[in-house]
Amino acid sequence: MIGGGQLARMTHQAAIALGQRLRVLAVTPDDPAAQVTPDVVIGSHDDLDALRRAAAGADVVTFDHEHVPPELLDKLVADGVNVAPPPSALIHAQDKLVMRRRLDALGAPVPRFAAVTAPADVDAFAAGADTALVVKAVRGGYDGRGVTLARDTAQAREAAADFLQSGVGVLVEEKVEMRRELAVLAARSPFGQGAVWPVVETVQRDGICVEVIAPAPGLDDDVAGAAGRLALRIADELGVVGVLAVELFETVDGGLVVNELAMRPHNSGHWTMDGSRTSQFEQHLRAVLDYPLGDTTPLAPVTVMANVLGAQQIPTMSMDERVHHLFARFPDAKVHLYGKAERPGRKIGHVNVVGAPGGSIDDADYVADVRNRAALAAHWLSHAEWTDGWDPHDER
Ligand SMILES: Nc1ncnc2c1ncn2[C@@H]1O[C@H](COP(=O)(O)OP(=O)(O)OP(=O)(O)O)[C@@H](O)[C@H]1O
Ligand SMILES: [Mg+2]
User: Fold this and answer.
1) Which amino acid residue places its CA nearest to atom 16 of ligand 1?
2) Residue 234 pLDDT grade (very low, low, confident, very high; cuts 50, 70, 90)
3) Quick check: bond before 215 cis, omega within 30?
4) Residue-number span of the structural domain to which 344 is assigned
């Protein structure tokens, strides 16, 4: 796997059960995945020599991020390396303009968009209207970096000029009036088998995903079914191999538009580690190894994932002690820590809380209770502070 972050770390965890060894190409021996697999190649994902060393003798090469330059991927393919997803598919997760154009051509719903090669293109797109616009660097963004939500055309023009100045391609699109953000995760094997998990709701704060509710509460069955079919169709049409995440916006009138694609395990699928028969990490491996895919049935009426983000003020209490206290209060919380140093806003882990049997996704109190416990747990792990004022000594 190219990249040694938490996605590679959790993929390695799944690889163990399949009798596989996951070699990772990591930047440092301290990277989350490099800490846990014995098979580490140290190097950069934009160094062909490092990529070749990582690929040597591997059955298949896959990714924990989309930042490997396409021309290097083509070289690996020319070497005879089995690259999954293939570069021809992966480009749609690497370049937002290529993705928008292709999805548009497939008839998939996307926001109105245009390529920007000069700041004046933004004015042409706005066509005289002074409106909120979204300007995006077409490559290299993550966690909302490379995305500017501009309040008016002037601000959008400025953002476009800044991106262009730094030499990156740019696109402008309408700001979608949305109810909420959703995601649908699918997997496709080279054999052509497809599998899809239920549509989830993703809650973002400051451009970072903080919470995922699986399945998305209150989502119309027809809309959910259509989203699943859309993800499978995109996977097929693009020739995806592995997990495909389709980030969606639910518009104010209840329709769906595609935001972006990822072709790897995705934050919106972390709930599957504890809330589904098959986790996204196992499924990604099954797909790239061309095994039959696993059952994606949820194990509970609702599963909530809350990200543990590094606090502004890193607590003096050690993480070990925080985990200790957390488990004392919530024995059923499933903790996944990435072995990363704590830095403000950094994703350092997540917590899954699986709803008790007998509840229903349509029961607002039941869902709110699971969400609340996941949020309390994640905040405790990052801040060493119970937001509801809970005190263990009151329990005695
Ligand atoms: N057209 C749009 N209209 C409204 N909001 C948008 C639009 N495009 C993006 N956003 C908001 O900005 C966030 C980040 O956008 P996007 O997913 O394209 O960025 P990213 O940094 O590549 O992704 P990620 O955070 O998934 O790594 C979205 O989750 C959404 O909240
Ligand atoms: Mg996104």
Assistant:
1) 144
2) very high
3) yes
4) 178-383
